[in-house]
Amino acid sequence: MKATQIPFEQTGFFSKIMLDYLEQKEPIKSFYNNFPNVSGFHNQIEEKEKSFRLQSRLVLVDALKKQYEGFDISEKTRENIQLLKLKNTFTITTGHQLNLFTGPLYFLYKIIAAINLAEELSEKFPAQNFVPVYWMATEDHDFEEINYFNFDGKKVLWSREDGGAVGRFSTEGLESVFEVFSNQLGNSKNAKELKELFSKGYLKHDNLADATRFIANELFKEYGLVIVDGDDKELKKLFIPFIKDELENETSFKEVSKTVTSLEKNYKIQVNPREINLFYLGKNSRERIIFEDGVYKVNNTNTSFSKSEILQEVEKNPLAFSPNVIVRPLYQEVILPNLCYIGGGGEIAYWFELKNYFNKVKVPFPILLLRNSVQVISEKQQKKLDNLNISHEEIFLSQHKLLSKKVVENSAIEIDFNAKINFLENQFSDLKEVAKKTDVSFINAVNAQERKQIKGLENLQKRLLKAEKRRQKDLVDRITELQNAIVPNQSLEERQRNFSEYYLEYGSSFIEALKKSLKPLDLEFTILEL
Protein backbone atom coordinates (compact mmCIF):
# COMPACT_ATOMS: atom_id res chain seq x y z
CA MET A 1 0.00 0.00 0.00
CA LYS A 2 1.24 3.47 -0.92
CA ALA A 3 -0.62 6.76 -0.53
CA THR A 4 0.33 9.99 -2.26
CA GLN A 5 -1.47 13.30 -2.47
CA ILE A 6 -2.12 15.89 -5.16
CA PRO A 7 -3.92 19.26 -4.88
CA PHE A 8 -7.71 19.04 -5.35
CA GLU A 9 -7.38 21.62 -8.13
CA GLN A 10 -5.28 19.31 -10.29
CA THR A 11 -8.11 16.80 -10.67
CA GLY A 12 -10.35 19.35 -12.42
CA PHE A 13 -13.39 18.02 -10.51
CA PHE A 14 -13.75 20.70 -7.81
CA SER A 15 -15.67 23.97 -8.00
CA LYS A 16 -14.29 27.49 -7.79
CA ILE A 17 -16.00 28.06 -4.43
CA MET A 18 -14.29 25.01 -2.90
CA LEU A 19 -10.86 25.85 -4.32
CA ASP A 20 -11.17 29.44 -3.07
CA TYR A 21 -12.15 28.12 0.36
CA LEU A 22 -9.19 25.75 0.56
CA GLU A 23 -6.90 28.68 -0.27
CA GLN A 24 -8.80 30.98 2.16
CA LYS A 25 -9.30 33.58 -0.56
CA GLU A 26 -10.83 36.93 0.36
CA PRO A 27 -14.20 36.65 -1.50
CA ILE A 28 -15.25 33.56 0.54
CA LYS A 29 -13.92 34.55 4.00
CA SER A 30 -17.08 36.20 5.32
CA PHE A 31 -19.15 33.05 4.65
CA TYR A 32 -17.47 30.74 7.16
CA ASN A 33 -16.43 30.90 10.80
CA ASN A 34 -13.22 29.10 11.84
CA PHE A 35 -11.02 27.40 9.24
CA PRO A 36 -10.13 23.68 9.63
CA ASN A 37 -6.69 24.03 11.20
CA VAL A 38 -5.37 23.76 14.77
CA SER A 39 -6.02 27.39 15.70
CA GLY A 40 -9.50 27.18 14.14
CA PHE A 41 -10.37 24.15 16.29
CA HIS A 42 -9.00 25.86 19.40
CA ASN A 43 -11.41 28.77 18.83
CA GLN A 44 -14.31 26.47 17.95
CA ILE A 45 -13.90 24.43 21.14
CA GLU A 46 -14.11 27.58 23.26
CA GLU A 47 -17.16 28.86 21.38
CA LYS A 48 -19.11 25.58 21.50
CA GLU A 49 -18.29 24.81 25.13
CA LYS A 50 -19.81 28.13 26.25
CA SER A 51 -23.06 27.63 24.33
CA PHE A 52 -23.90 23.92 24.67
CA ARG A 53 -26.09 23.04 27.67
CA LEU A 54 -25.65 20.03 29.93
CA GLN A 55 -29.38 19.25 29.61
CA SER A 56 -28.98 18.86 25.83
CA ARG A 57 -26.14 16.40 26.41
CA LEU A 58 -28.27 14.26 28.73
CA VAL A 59 -31.17 14.19 26.25
CA LEU A 60 -28.76 13.26 23.43
CA VAL A 61 -27.18 10.39 25.37
CA ASP A 62 -30.58 8.97 26.40
CA ALA A 63 -31.83 9.19 22.81
CA LEU A 64 -28.72 7.43 21.47
CA LYS A 65 -29.02 4.61 24.00
CA LYS A 66 -32.61 4.02 22.87
CA GLN A 67 -31.65 4.18 19.19
CA TYR A 68 -28.93 1.55 19.74
CA GLU A 69 -31.17 -0.90 21.62
CA GLY A 70 -30.89 -4.34 20.01
CA PHE A 71 -27.63 -3.51 18.23
CA ASP A 72 -24.29 -5.13 18.99
CA ILE A 73 -22.06 -2.14 19.65
CA SER A 74 -18.37 -2.01 20.49
CA GLU A 75 -17.01 -0.96 23.85
CA LYS A 76 -15.47 2.11 22.16
CA THR A 77 -18.81 3.25 20.73
CA ARG A 78 -20.49 2.66 24.09
CA GLU A 79 -17.77 4.68 25.79
CA ASN A 80 -18.10 7.51 23.24
CA ILE A 81 -21.85 7.73 23.87
CA GLN A 82 -21.20 8.04 27.62
CA LEU A 83 -18.49 10.66 27.05
CA LEU A 84 -21.08 12.91 25.37
CA LYS A 85 -22.43 13.71 28.86
CA LEU A 86 -19.21 15.57 29.68
CA LYS A 87 -18.82 19.26 28.89
CA ASN A 88 -15.32 18.66 27.45
CA THR A 89 -16.60 16.17 24.83
CA PHE A 90 -17.27 17.33 21.26
CA THR A 91 -18.39 15.68 18.04
CA ILE A 92 -16.96 15.61 14.54
CA THR A 93 -19.89 14.97 12.23
CA THR A 94 -20.50 13.82 8.71
CA GLY A 95 -23.87 13.02 7.17
CA HIS A 96 -25.13 10.95 4.29
CA GLN A 97 -28.30 9.65 2.69
CA LEU A 98 -29.50 6.10 3.38
CA ASN A 99 -28.18 4.82 0.06
CA LEU A 100 -28.76 1.15 -0.64
CA PHE A 101 -25.70 -0.78 0.63
CA THR A 102 -23.94 2.55 1.36
CA GLY A 103 -24.22 3.80 -2.24
CA PRO A 104 -21.13 5.47 -3.74
CA LEU A 105 -17.61 4.88 -2.38
CA TYR A 106 -17.32 8.30 -0.78
CA PHE A 107 -19.70 7.17 1.98
CA LEU A 108 -16.66 5.41 3.45
CA TYR A 109 -14.37 8.38 2.92
CA LYS A 110 -16.69 10.74 4.80
CA ILE A 111 -16.94 8.49 7.84
CA ILE A 112 -13.23 7.61 7.93
CA ALA A 113 -12.41 11.33 7.68
CA ALA A 114 -14.61 11.95 10.76
CA ILE A 115 -12.93 9.07 12.65
CA ASN A 116 -9.40 10.15 11.74
CA LEU A 117 -10.05 13.80 12.52
CA ALA A 118 -11.48 12.88 15.95
CA GLU A 119 -8.31 10.86 16.65
CA GLU A 120 -6.01 13.65 15.45
CA LEU A 121 -7.78 16.26 17.58
CA SER A 122 -7.53 13.95 20.63
CA GLU A 123 -3.75 14.11 20.23
CA LYS A 124 -3.65 17.87 19.68
CA PHE A 125 -6.16 18.70 22.48
CA PRO A 126 -5.67 16.03 25.18
CA ALA A 127 -7.92 17.88 27.68
CA GLN A 128 -10.96 17.26 25.44
CA ASN A 129 -12.72 14.20 24.03
CA PHE A 130 -13.74 13.94 20.36
CA VAL A 131 -16.43 11.60 19.07
CA PRO A 132 -16.91 10.75 15.36
CA VAL A 133 -20.58 10.93 14.33
CA TYR A 134 -22.44 9.73 11.25
CA TRP A 135 -25.75 11.58 10.87
CA MET A 136 -28.19 9.41 8.94
CA ALA A 137 -30.43 11.43 6.62
CA THR A 138 -33.46 9.42 7.69
CA GLU A 139 -35.96 12.21 6.97
CA ASP A 140 -35.05 12.63 3.30
CA HIS A 141 -37.77 11.74 0.80
CA ASP A 142 -35.77 11.50 -2.44
CA PHE A 143 -36.04 7.73 -2.78
CA GLU A 144 -34.81 7.74 -6.39
CA GLU A 145 -31.46 9.09 -5.19
CA ILE A 146 -30.86 6.21 -2.79
CA ASN A 147 -32.63 3.12 -4.20
CA TYR A 148 -29.61 1.68 -6.05
CA PHE A 149 -25.87 1.16 -6.04
CA ASN A 150 -23.42 0.32 -8.82
CA PHE A 151 -21.53 -2.95 -8.81
CA ASP A 152 -19.12 -3.93 -11.56
CA GLY A 153 -20.62 -1.35 -13.94
CA LYS A 154 -24.20 -2.55 -13.36
CA LYS A 155 -26.98 -0.94 -11.32
CA VAL A 156 -28.39 -2.97 -8.42
CA LEU A 157 -31.87 -1.47 -7.99
CA TRP A 158 -34.59 -1.61 -5.33
CA SER A 159 -38.05 -0.95 -6.79
CA ARG A 160 -40.87 -0.02 -4.45
CA GLU A 161 -43.49 2.68 -3.98
CA ASP A 162 -42.15 6.02 -2.85
CA GLY A 163 -43.62 8.19 -0.07
CA GLY A 164 -42.55 9.78 3.20
CA ALA A 165 -39.30 9.79 5.15
CA VAL A 166 -36.97 7.11 3.77
CA GLY A 167 -35.70 6.04 7.20
CA ARG A 168 -39.19 4.76 8.01
CA PHE A 169 -39.43 2.68 4.81
CA SER A 170 -40.05 -1.02 5.33
CA THR A 171 -37.22 -3.27 4.07
CA GLU A 172 -39.80 -5.62 2.59
CA GLY A 173 -38.91 -6.58 -0.97
CA LEU A 174 -35.14 -6.46 -0.50
CA GLU A 175 -34.88 -10.26 -0.68
CA SER A 176 -35.02 -10.09 -4.48
CA VAL A 177 -32.32 -7.36 -4.51
CA PHE A 178 -30.14 -9.57 -2.29
CA GLU A 179 -30.61 -12.48 -4.69
CA VAL A 180 -29.51 -10.42 -7.70
CA PHE A 181 -26.49 -9.04 -5.82
CA SER A 182 -25.51 -12.47 -4.45
CA ASN A 183 -25.42 -13.97 -7.94
CA GLN A 184 -22.94 -11.30 -9.03
CA LEU A 185 -20.59 -11.75 -6.06
CA GLY A 186 -19.45 -15.36 -6.40
CA ASN A 187 -18.44 -17.53 -3.44
CA SER A 188 -15.07 -16.29 -2.22
CA LYS A 189 -14.46 -15.60 1.49
CA ASN A 190 -14.89 -11.84 0.93
CA ALA A 191 -18.03 -12.44 -1.14
CA LYS A 192 -19.55 -14.42 1.73
CA GLU A 193 -18.77 -11.56 4.15
CA LEU A 194 -20.50 -9.08 1.83
CA LYS A 195 -23.55 -11.34 1.48
CA GLU A 196 -23.76 -11.72 5.24
CA LEU A 197 -23.49 -7.95 5.78
CA PHE A 198 -26.22 -7.25 3.21
CA SER A 199 -28.57 -9.99 4.41
CA LYS A 200 -28.19 -9.20 8.13
CA GLY A 201 -28.59 -5.51 7.41
CA TYR A 202 -31.63 -5.53 5.17
CA LEU A 203 -33.35 -8.86 5.74
CA LYS A 204 -33.20 -8.81 9.55
CA HIS A 205 -34.23 -5.21 10.17
CA ASP A 206 -37.69 -3.79 9.61
CA ASN A 207 -36.86 -0.32 8.31
CA LEU A 208 -34.20 1.40 6.27
CA ALA A 209 -32.85 3.48 9.19
CA ASP A 210 -32.14 0.39 11.30
CA ALA A 211 -30.68 -1.47 8.32
CA THR A 212 -28.33 1.41 7.53
CA ARG A 213 -27.33 1.74 11.19
CA PHE A 214 -26.49 -1.97 11.29
CA ILE A 215 -24.29 -1.81 8.18
CA ALA A 216 -22.44 1.38 9.19
CA ASN A 217 -21.99 0.01 12.71
CA GLU A 218 -20.58 -3.28 11.42
CA LEU A 219 -18.09 -1.50 9.17
CA PHE A 220 -16.91 1.11 11.68
CA LYS A 221 -17.84 0.14 15.25
CA GLU A 222 -14.27 -0.77 16.23
CA TYR A 223 -13.34 2.89 15.68
CA GLY A 224 -16.03 4.15 18.05
CA LEU A 225 -18.35 5.64 15.44
CA VAL A 226 -21.63 6.98 16.86
CA ILE A 227 -24.63 6.93 14.51
CA VAL A 228 -27.42 9.48 14.98
CA ASP A 229 -31.00 9.32 13.68
CA GLY A 230 -32.51 12.81 13.82
CA ASP A 231 -36.03 11.43 13.30
CA ASP A 232 -36.40 11.19 17.06
CA LYS A 233 -39.06 12.76 19.29
CA GLU A 234 -36.78 13.61 22.22
CA LEU A 235 -34.17 15.20 19.94
CA LYS A 236 -36.87 17.15 18.10
CA LYS A 237 -38.08 18.53 21.45
CA LEU A 238 -34.70 20.27 21.82
CA PHE A 239 -35.38 21.97 18.49
CA ILE A 240 -38.92 23.23 19.30
CA PRO A 241 -37.90 26.91 19.85
CA PHE A 242 -36.26 26.99 16.41
CA ILE A 243 -39.24 25.28 14.71
CA LYS A 244 -41.55 27.91 16.22
CA ASP A 245 -39.22 30.72 15.14
CA GLU A 246 -39.20 29.33 11.60
CA LEU A 247 -43.00 29.20 11.47
CA GLU A 248 -43.60 32.61 13.04
CA ASN A 249 -40.70 34.69 11.72
CA GLU A 250 -39.34 32.92 8.60
CA THR A 251 -35.86 33.71 9.94
CA SER A 252 -33.96 31.28 7.71
CA PHE A 253 -35.57 32.71 4.57
CA LYS A 254 -34.73 36.30 5.52
CA GLU A 255 -31.14 35.64 6.57
CA VAL A 256 -30.19 33.11 3.88
CA SER A 257 -31.73 35.32 1.15
CA LYS A 258 -29.43 38.17 2.20
CA THR A 259 -26.43 35.85 2.15
CA VAL A 260 -27.36 34.45 -1.27
CA THR A 261 -27.49 37.98 -2.72
CA SER A 262 -23.94 38.54 -1.50
CA LEU A 263 -22.57 35.06 -2.29
CA GLU A 264 -23.88 34.93 -5.87
CA LYS A 265 -21.69 37.90 -6.86
CA ASN A 266 -18.77 35.47 -7.06
CA TYR A 267 -20.15 31.94 -6.87
CA LYS A 268 -22.87 29.63 -8.10
CA ILE A 269 -25.70 29.22 -5.57
CA GLN A 270 -26.34 25.66 -4.42
CA VAL A 271 -29.83 25.94 -2.88
CA ASN A 272 -32.41 28.71 -2.50
CA PRO A 273 -34.50 29.09 0.67
CA ARG A 274 -38.28 28.93 0.83
CA GLU A 275 -40.37 31.18 3.08
CA ILE A 276 -40.79 28.25 5.50
CA ASN A 277 -38.04 25.62 5.37
CA LEU A 278 -39.93 22.84 7.12
CA PHE A 279 -41.85 19.75 6.02
CA TYR A 280 -44.76 18.08 7.76
CA LEU A 281 -44.25 14.34 8.17
CA GLY A 282 -47.24 12.04 7.78
CA LYS A 283 -47.31 8.26 7.82
CA ASN A 284 -46.35 7.98 4.14
CA SER A 285 -45.73 11.59 3.23
CA ARG A 286 -43.33 14.49 3.74
CA GLU A 287 -44.84 17.69 2.39
CA ARG A 288 -43.87 21.36 2.56
CA ILE A 289 -45.52 23.70 5.05
CA ILE A 290 -46.83 26.82 3.27
CA PHE A 291 -48.20 30.00 4.86
CA GLU A 292 -51.06 31.41 2.76
CA ASP A 293 -53.94 33.77 3.62
CA GLY A 294 -53.11 33.63 7.32
CA VAL A 295 -53.22 29.82 7.38
CA TYR A 296 -50.46 27.18 7.57
CA LYS A 297 -51.15 24.56 4.90
CA VAL A 298 -49.50 21.18 4.31
CA ASN A 299 -48.86 21.05 0.57
CA ASN A 300 -50.73 18.40 -1.47
CA THR A 301 -53.00 17.56 1.50
CA ASN A 302 -56.17 18.90 3.12
CA THR A 303 -54.34 19.53 6.39
CA SER A 304 -54.13 23.12 7.60
CA PHE A 305 -53.56 24.97 10.87
CA SER A 306 -54.15 28.41 12.31
CA LYS A 307 -51.11 30.03 13.96
CA SER A 308 -52.11 28.95 17.46
CA GLU A 309 -52.97 25.44 16.23
CA ILE A 310 -49.64 24.88 14.51
CA LEU A 311 -47.66 26.15 17.51
CA GLN A 312 -49.67 23.78 19.68
CA GLU A 313 -48.95 20.97 17.20
CA VAL A 314 -45.21 21.68 17.50
CA GLU A 315 -45.43 21.20 21.28
CA LYS A 316 -47.59 18.06 21.07
CA ASN A 317 -46.04 16.43 18.01
CA PRO A 318 -42.53 17.79 17.30
CA LEU A 319 -41.69 14.59 15.40
CA ALA A 320 -44.02 15.72 12.58
CA PHE A 321 -41.86 18.76 11.80
CA SER A 322 -38.98 17.90 9.52
CA PRO A 323 -36.27 20.41 8.53
CA ASN A 324 -35.34 20.79 4.88
CA VAL A 325 -31.81 21.25 3.50
CA ILE A 326 -31.62 24.84 4.83
CA VAL A 327 -32.72 24.15 8.42
CA ARG A 328 -31.34 20.60 8.87
CA PRO A 329 -27.78 21.86 9.54
CA LEU A 330 -29.10 24.03 12.36
CA TYR A 331 -30.99 21.07 13.86
CA GLN A 332 -27.75 19.07 13.83
CA GLU A 333 -25.79 21.83 15.56
CA VAL A 334 -28.51 22.40 18.17
CA ILE A 335 -28.62 18.77 19.33
CA LEU A 336 -24.90 17.88 18.99
CA PRO A 337 -21.87 19.40 20.76
CA ASN A 338 -20.40 19.63 17.29
CA LEU A 339 -17.21 21.36 16.15
CA CYS A 340 -16.92 20.40 12.51
CA TYR A 341 -19.07 19.19 9.63
CA ILE A 342 -17.35 17.07 6.97
CA GLY A 343 -19.03 17.06 3.56
CA GLY A 344 -18.53 16.98 -0.18
CA GLY A 345 -18.09 20.07 -2.33
CA GLY A 346 -21.81 20.48 -3.01
CA GLU A 347 -22.70 20.15 0.66
CA ILE A 348 -20.10 22.61 1.89
CA ALA A 349 -21.21 25.07 -0.81
CA TYR A 350 -24.73 25.27 0.65
CA TRP A 351 -23.40 25.52 4.23
CA PHE A 352 -21.70 28.77 3.13
CA GLU A 353 -25.21 30.21 2.71
CA LEU A 354 -26.07 29.60 6.37
CA LYS A 355 -23.56 31.48 8.53
CA ASN A 356 -25.67 34.65 8.99
CA TYR A 357 -28.71 32.51 9.82
CA PHE A 358 -26.74 30.75 12.57
CA ASN A 359 -25.52 34.11 13.89
CA LYS A 360 -29.09 35.42 13.99
CA VAL A 361 -30.39 32.48 16.05
CA LYS A 362 -27.24 32.51 18.23
CA VAL A 363 -25.92 29.01 17.46
CA PRO A 364 -22.17 28.59 16.79
CA PHE A 365 -21.45 27.99 13.10
CA PRO A 366 -19.28 24.84 12.78
CA ILE A 367 -15.96 24.46 11.03
CA LEU A 368 -16.54 23.19 7.49
CA LEU A 369 -14.18 20.55 6.14
CA LEU A 370 -14.08 19.21 2.59
CA ARG A 371 -14.13 15.43 2.91
CA ASN A 372 -11.24 13.30 1.71
CA SER A 373 -11.41 12.21 -1.90
CA VAL A 374 -9.58 9.09 -3.05
CA GLN A 375 -8.54 7.47 -6.30
CA VAL A 376 -7.73 3.79 -5.84
CA ILE A 377 -5.13 2.37 -8.21
CA SER A 378 -4.02 -1.26 -8.24
CA GLU A 379 -0.33 -2.20 -8.49
CA LYS A 380 -1.00 -3.54 -11.97
CA GLN A 381 -2.61 -0.27 -13.07
CA GLN A 382 0.27 1.73 -11.58
CA LYS A 383 2.77 -0.30 -13.62
CA LYS A 384 0.76 0.45 -16.77
CA LEU A 385 0.70 4.16 -15.89
CA ASP A 386 4.48 4.08 -15.43
CA ASN A 387 4.99 2.26 -18.75
CA LEU A 388 2.80 4.82 -20.54
CA ASN A 389 4.52 7.71 -18.72
CA ILE A 390 1.18 8.99 -17.31
CA SER A 391 1.39 10.92 -14.04
CA HIS A 392 -1.30 10.85 -11.35
CA GLU A 393 -2.35 14.37 -12.29
CA GLU A 394 -2.69 13.41 -15.98
CA ILE A 395 -5.15 10.58 -15.15
CA PHE A 396 -7.83 13.24 -14.61
CA LEU A 397 -7.37 15.08 -17.91
CA SER A 398 -10.24 14.76 -20.37
CA GLN A 399 -9.64 11.75 -22.58
CA HIS A 400 -9.16 13.94 -25.64
CA LYS A 401 -6.49 16.04 -23.88
CA LEU A 402 -4.73 13.01 -22.41
CA LEU A 403 -4.59 11.16 -25.74
CA SER A 404 -3.44 14.26 -27.64
CA LYS A 405 -0.71 14.95 -25.07
CA LYS A 406 0.66 11.41 -25.09
CA VAL A 407 0.48 11.02 -28.88
CA VAL A 408 2.42 14.27 -29.29
CA GLU A 409 5.00 13.16 -26.69
CA ASN A 410 5.37 9.78 -28.42
CA SER A 411 5.61 11.11 -31.97
CA ALA A 412 8.82 11.31 -33.99
CA ILE A 413 7.45 14.28 -35.93
CA GLU A 414 6.55 17.74 -34.67
CA ILE A 415 2.78 17.95 -34.18
CA ASP A 416 2.60 21.04 -31.99
CA PHE A 417 2.17 24.01 -34.32
CA ASN A 418 2.28 26.65 -31.55
CA ALA A 419 5.75 27.82 -32.56
CA LYS A 420 4.62 28.14 -36.19
CA ILE A 421 1.49 30.05 -35.17
CA ASN A 422 3.59 32.40 -32.99
CA PHE A 423 5.99 32.98 -35.90
CA LEU A 424 3.04 33.78 -38.17
CA GLU A 425 1.55 36.19 -35.62
CA ASN A 426 4.91 38.03 -35.39
CA GLN A 427 5.06 38.35 -39.21
CA PHE A 428 1.58 39.81 -39.29
CA SER A 429 2.46 42.14 -36.42
CA ASP A 430 5.18 43.68 -38.61
CA LEU A 431 2.74 43.84 -41.52
CA LYS A 432 0.18 45.67 -39.34
CA GLU A 433 2.75 48.37 -38.56
CA VAL A 434 3.10 48.96 -42.33
CA ALA A 435 -0.70 48.86 -42.73
CA LYS A 436 -1.16 51.63 -40.17
CA LYS A 437 0.53 54.00 -42.60
CA THR A 438 -2.09 53.31 -45.26
CA ASP A 439 -5.90 53.33 -45.06
CA VAL A 440 -8.31 51.32 -42.86
CA SER A 441 -9.37 48.93 -45.66
CA PHE A 442 -5.81 47.59 -45.92
CA ILE A 443 -5.63 47.02 -42.13
CA ASN A 444 -8.88 45.04 -42.32
CA ALA A 445 -7.48 42.97 -45.17
CA VAL A 446 -4.34 42.17 -43.14
CA ASN A 447 -6.42 41.12 -40.10
CA ALA A 448 -8.64 38.89 -42.26
CA GLN A 449 -5.61 37.24 -43.85
CA GLU A 450 -4.05 36.64 -40.41
CA ARG A 451 -7.18 34.92 -39.14
CA LYS A 452 -7.41 32.83 -42.31
CA GLN A 453 -3.80 31.61 -42.20
CA ILE A 454 -3.85 30.85 -38.44
CA LYS A 455 -7.13 28.97 -38.87
CA GLY A 456 -5.51 27.03 -41.71
CA LEU A 457 -2.55 26.06 -39.53
CA GLU A 458 -4.86 25.00 -36.69
CA ASN A 459 -6.86 22.78 -39.05
CA LEU A 460 -3.66 21.23 -40.39
CA GLN A 461 -2.53 20.55 -36.81
CA LYS A 462 -5.85 18.81 -36.04
CA ARG A 463 -5.58 16.67 -39.18
CA LEU A 464 -1.97 15.77 -38.40
CA LEU A 465 -2.90 14.83 -34.82
CA LYS A 466 -5.77 12.66 -36.09
CA ALA A 467 -3.45 10.92 -38.50
CA GLU A 468 -0.87 10.39 -35.78
CA LYS A 469 -3.53 8.93 -33.45
CA ARG A 470 -4.42 6.43 -36.19
CA ARG A 471 -0.74 5.58 -36.63
CA GLN A 472 -0.33 5.16 -32.84
CA LYS A 473 -3.56 3.15 -32.46
CA ASP A 474 -2.03 0.65 -30.04
CA LEU A 475 -0.94 3.45 -27.66
CA VAL A 476 -4.32 5.20 -27.98
CA ASP A 477 -6.21 1.97 -27.19
CA ARG A 478 -4.02 1.17 -24.18
CA ILE A 479 -4.42 4.65 -22.69
CA THR A 480 -8.18 4.71 -23.36
CA GLU A 481 -8.73 1.31 -21.73
CA LEU A 482 -6.61 2.21 -18.69
CA GLN A 483 -8.20 5.61 -18.11
CA ASN A 484 -11.72 4.17 -18.50
CA ALA A 485 -10.89 1.54 -15.86
CA ILE A 486 -9.51 4.10 -13.40
CA VAL A 487 -11.87 7.02 -14.07
CA PRO A 488 -15.21 5.45 -15.12
CA ASN A 489 -17.43 7.64 -17.32
CA GLN A 490 -14.83 10.42 -17.08
CA SER A 491 -15.92 11.02 -13.50
CA LEU A 492 -14.33 10.38 -10.11
CA GLU A 493 -14.72 6.69 -9.29
CA GLU A 494 -15.86 7.56 -5.75
CA ARG A 495 -19.12 8.83 -7.24
CA GLN A 496 -19.59 5.79 -9.48
CA ARG A 497 -18.47 2.67 -7.61
CA ASN A 498 -19.65 0.93 -4.45
CA PHE A 499 -17.22 -0.21 -1.74
CA SER A 500 -18.20 -3.85 -2.36
CA GLU A 501 -16.06 -3.97 -5.54
CA TYR A 502 -12.92 -3.30 -3.52
CA TYR A 503 -14.07 -5.31 -0.51
CA LEU A 504 -14.53 -8.31 -2.82
CA GLU A 505 -10.86 -8.04 -3.79
CA TYR A 506 -9.20 -6.83 -0.58
CA GLY A 507 -11.66 -7.63 2.24
CA SER A 508 -11.52 -5.59 5.45
CA SER A 509 -7.92 -4.60 4.65
CA PHE A 510 -9.44 -2.10 2.18
CA ILE A 511 -11.05 -0.14 5.03
CA GLU A 512 -7.84 -0.48 7.08
CA ALA A 513 -5.82 0.94 4.17
CA LEU A 514 -8.18 3.91 3.89
CA LYS A 515 -7.99 4.44 7.65
CA LYS A 516 -4.18 4.62 7.48
CA SER A 517 -4.10 6.85 4.40
CA LEU A 518 -6.73 9.58 4.89
CA LYS A 519 -5.47 12.78 6.46
CA PRO A 520 -8.45 15.16 6.72
CA LEU A 521 -6.54 18.33 7.65
CA ASP A 522 -4.03 18.00 4.78
CA LEU A 523 -6.78 19.26 2.43
CA GLU A 524 -5.48 17.29 -0.55
CA PHE A 525 -6.70 14.57 -2.92
CA THR A 526 -5.40 11.07 -2.10
CA ILE A 527 -4.10 8.51 -4.60
CA LEU A 528 -4.13 5.10 -2.93
CA GLU A 529 -2.07 2.37 -4.58
CA LEU A 530 -3.11 -1.12 -3.43
If you had to describe this structure to a student in words, what would you say it looks like?
- This protein is α/β, with parallel strands linked by helices.
- The chain folds into three domains: 2-238 and 341-373 and 511-529, no CATH class; 241-323, no CATH class; 393-490, no CATH class.
- Helices cover 51% and strands 14% of the residues.
- It contains 23 helices and 15 strands.
- The protein has helices at 16-22, 38-51, 54-67, 75-83, 106-124, 143-146, 174-185, 189-202, 208-220, 233-238, 240-249, 251-263, 307-316, 328-335, 345-351, 355-360, 379-387, 399-410, 418-435, 440-471, 473-486, 499-506, 509-517, and strands at 2-6, 89-96, 129-136, 148-151, 154-157, 226-229, 278-281, 286-292, 295-298, 304-305, 321-323, 338-343, 367-370, 374-377, 525-529.
- It is globular, with a radius of gyration of 28 Å.
- The protein starts with a strand and ends with a strand.
- The model has no long low-confidence stretch (mean pLDDT 94).
Structural descriptors:
five-stranded antiparallel beta sheet, 530 residues, five-stranded parallel beta sheet, 3 domains, single chain, alpha/beta, 23 helices
